[in-house]
Design brief:
With 868 residues, the chain is of the alpha/beta class. It is built from 17 helices and 33 strands. The longest helix has 27 residues, at 648-674.
Length: 868
Amino acid sequence: MPTIVTKTVKPSGGDYTSLNAAIQGLKATYANLVALDTILRIECYPMEDTTWVHIDTSWITDATRYIHVVAPPTARHRGTWSTQAYRLTSDFPYGTMLIRTPGVRLEGLQIESRHPGGTAIYPPGPTKPQLWVENCIIRGCHGTGAAGLGAAIHAYYIGGTIRMRNSVVYGFENGIVWVGMQAGSELDLYNNTFYGARQSNVRTVASSTAGTLRLKNNLCVDAGTGPDYEIDNSPAPIAHHARNLSSDGSAPGADAIHDAQVRFRDVQAGDFRLDRDDTAAQHAGADLRQDAAWAFSTDAAGERRTDVWSVGALEYVPSRRDAAFGVRLKAAEIARHRPHPLHCANGEEKAYPYVANFSKGLQHDANGDVVPASYQSLLNALATRDPADFEAIVLGPGGKKLTNPQSGLAFTLEGPDPQAVTQPPAPRINSAQNSAEMGELYWMALSRDVHFNDYGTNAVVQAAITSLHGEFTDFRGPKASGAVTTQTVFRGIFPGETVGPYLSQFLLKGTSDPRLAAGQGRSTADGLITYGDLKIDQRQVTVQPGTDYLTSFADWLDVQNGWDRRGQDAIDTSQRRFIRNLRDLGERVHIDNVGDMFFNACLILLHEVPGDQLTGSGVVGRDMEFPWDQGNPYLAYVKQAPFATLGAPHALSLVWEALIRSLRAVWFQKWFVHRRLRPEEFGGRIDNHLTGRRTYSQIHGEILSSLQSGGLAPYFGGQSGDTFPSYLLPQAFPEGAPTHPAYGAGHATGSGACATVLKAFFNESTPIENPLVVNATGTALVAYTGADASQMTVGGELNKLAGNVAIGRNAAGVHWRSDYDQSLLLGEQVAIGLLQEQSLLLNEPEFYQLTRFNGTTIRIHDGVVSVV
């Protein structure tokens, strides 16, 4: 292995003040590099060096022990001529550099011939050169030829090897000329840019014997009197060509690019970087990273060449402004090519107007059916989309405002357009599925105060299981071996939702903070989530048991007409409690911001320290029990930690970004597509029908039968011994449902989106250890000892969290089961689209991997979503 000796050329403070001075001064000691087994490295730093360089025959060099003249990467040009880098300039006509020794390599230099017909690099012999030129800019001043010279490199009746790559050549009579190639000669030209020679850009002429030519990815355009490439084929050279480009038909090779119109950034300024709008050379080259003769992987400016190479010396590397625009353009193209589906309602609005559609807050008659003129004013606003028409909607006498009907018309700059995703038609009220969904809601209302731990023994819950399994032929809740069971009742249908206790651990556990005392956050069983130096308490302010609302027809009618009963809850002021039952769960999702529970879950995943998921050890914010997703490169990095990208702020912010985008999407579905009535409203139709105030023949018979003579009959109708005085669906909130349609559900859609983001950021397969449940009074957490405790995972508990949040709204009486399951899928669509565009943004080689609600694992990378 040769010894490397380094000397410097600097305007001051270096070993020499010009390159020629270094060449002449070093001869006394290093002339015979072969005998010394030495490479002489001469580093040239920013300056203008105006002395022509003569490397004469007294130097003894070869291909492995040579003179290496180099501008270090930190001190060289960046692809265009720079006065801030080393420049070797001369008006000597026979060569700014005259090279008469075989072993010379030039790297990263700027070399200029200021003679009107001068040559920049002239290796006249007599020895056979081993000349390498790479990453250089070589320019002339476009005069007329003098003494037959006038080229960036002019070789004349010699043998040897000339290799040139990643170099920019312009302003000469000819770009590179080799006259009289001799036997064994090699000319290797890789990824060079030759522009505007007065004769030809690349010439090999008057060869007496066949040499070897390797021309690959060269960009030669706009030659003058000759062709871009003038290759002597008599005798024919041994040719190895690939993807050469010319502005005429002369580019050599079977895969050459002819008659190309290349767009550079600024030819007049000597900027031969490819323009953003170029389509001829960008991504048109051959990948030479594994080339057998001369492999490399960067361009003239040191930029990395990746899988798809451009032709010429410089990859298209956009300015930051152009790069930013390009990313936005690529995201916009992804969005543009997403199919916009046909949005289809279930047809009830036309089949039986005003009966099966949302109308809460509008004007209603004495039986609670909407006044047609009031409903038509809503339809008019939805049709015209004129903001003034929304203000002209005729509301009921209570005056409660409709919730944000225009939001579905908003656009978004990231993720799918709100109208690019959709939901299937909602179940019709004349369907068995709708009957089953309403039956489940009556049973959930009856079971609101039953502790989750008591489902196996509680008579009402067991009656619900019997009814849902036996009375309703199209019940689509989860089942075990075809039957509704204690483990499946009132639960969600997606993976993980029927594993372990009813509630997700993310609604119960806190984080264990080793800095704190017992009972103050030391254990996850304390239920305190680390939020900086604050703590979020999983115990909530809940409501009194046994208090339900809108069970009398007069109260129900008032809220249909817009009387606002918010704030009249019967609050349990005795103490805060963990969620024990459906009533507590309903209250948890009553006045929240939808994303709250997922923000909390993200904090748990970020801040739980390693251990047994009860009392861990380590440093909060540094040591993580729950690892990042497998596509996060920071798992392997040893010198970097994630933060603004792929770290805590990134994950936390995307929870909220996914939420707002999913809400706009579902609000379009609510108002502009489905307008499904709320269960509360349907309860009014049932009550009217069964009491004889009005007949609705459209109502499916199974729910009527259950209420009149089946499993629900002992509890509803106001007969002696009934729990409730009517057939109205008891509401957990004094105001009942909010003033926007049922389908899809905002909480469910937001939950689907937020859970998807968290599954993309954290490893879903991580086990949940030491799961907990709530004690009888809701004041503490105790161990869960079910046989399936060891089967719980992060992914399953995130799915369960989404289901808990969505079904908690069902438990309160404000949503349907199909609102839950179809809306989780809608939110998932939005989040995947958001992550698809997010995957375009980062420098790190990341990908997102997650399991969809349907069990399919997908990977999202560089704007592409693929199934794993």
